[in-house]
């Protein structure tokens, strides 16, 4: 079996079907999770409605967090999405289309484990597209003084989560849970079930708010003395002959899967709610007394930070004190260009999936004589040419004898010029493969940086051709 590569996007190998009951609606739900193309993300579709509306799994569409996380658009709702979202993140699924014939994701046993098992059974498929991670390079904090909630995102090389809970309950006590790497989710976090206190359960039952509730899909913490009459009412509500409570303080004496199952489930909820940011992040999340409303508010804050700073994500760091991977002499051996048309001075990073080159722009460049005389601006077409040349080095790096091949560019798409390049600027040329090279066709995303600003960006497609072959 091919090892899971977190650097690429993933979807399902085949559709999977899951049926159950909605916790709050009590309706039977049939759910199908289907594969989706790279970049599709996670989207839900209500196939039971006439126009079959689709709602993106995004914090911008969260409309309710009172009893779970609910997405909504134009009056259409999809409730209790957090456990499924957590399972998708935990199993590395980036792209999926989810069809439901009811307004709520089935609660199953109150954990993410049934979803994880279904995804694992169906299989996860690697896709020909890189996965983009956004790093948090400063602390992001959310607090709710009234609820005594504090959420913090710290810079980290991995996505990890720590939760702390304190409900002032002698049954639960103060608990914490930690996930140091997303690979721990399946075994350590996914099996942990949702929980509530008996006084909350009684309120929900009296107001007919958990029509699909069952003692098999939640842990009920008994936080008060319960009379036999109350136990009898609960037995009728849950269609049981008898319900009991022992000294452990758990209704019907359900066996906990972990001593700190409550804290672990809160961690599960954090993972599921933060999945609605819409971006894969690398950060250490510390959540003290988290809940759905605070999780979503925090997710919105992180998303806003990423939107403001994503231009800086992946900005190469150029240290002129470090030796070049390829200097100008090595570049001349690879590329068929010479002065005045060689537009890459050195290569500072090179792998099988990306390249970073440097072009120093001086007032002595030949093109400044005729391009905006008196107000020198580097022609955009030459910025693209510089990207293309650096991309040629990336493409040929996959060959053992690159000097025997040339690259010819077939197509340039999505080209944007965002900032002028002026004399004295240092252009950082970054190209990343959009998908593996196949049959000599190389597809790349190129970006020109000046400092930490994007000057130019474009998608480029090139063909690798042996020099002794005629180009078709």
TrEMBL record:
Keywords: Cytoplasm, Hydrolase, Lipid A biosynthesis, Lipid biosynthesis, Lipid metabolism, Lyase, Metal-binding, Zinc. Gene3D superfamilies: Hotdog Thioesterase, lpxc deacetylase, domain 1, lpxc deacetylase, domain 2. It catalyses: a (3R)-hydroxyacyl-[ACP] = a (2E)-enoyl-[ACP] + H2O; a UDP-3-O-[(3R)-3-hydroxyacyl]-N-acetyl-alpha-D-glucosamine + H2O = a UDP-3-O-[(3R)-3-hydroxyacyl]-alpha-D-glucosamine + acetate. Its EC number is 4.2.1.59, 3.5.1.108. It is found in: Cytoplasm. Zn(2+) binds at residues 83, 265, 269. One of its GO terms (biological process) is fatty acid biosynthetic process. It comes from the Bacteria. Pathway: Glycolipid biosynthesis; lipid IV(A) biosynthesis; lipid IV(A) from (3R)-3-hydroxytetradecanoyl-[acyl-carrier-protein] and UDP-N-acetyl-alpha-D-glucosamine: step 2/6. The active site is at residues 292, 371. In the C-terminal section; belongs to the thioester dehydratase family. In the N-terminal section; belongs to the LpxC family. This is Multifunctional fusion protein. The gene is lpxC.
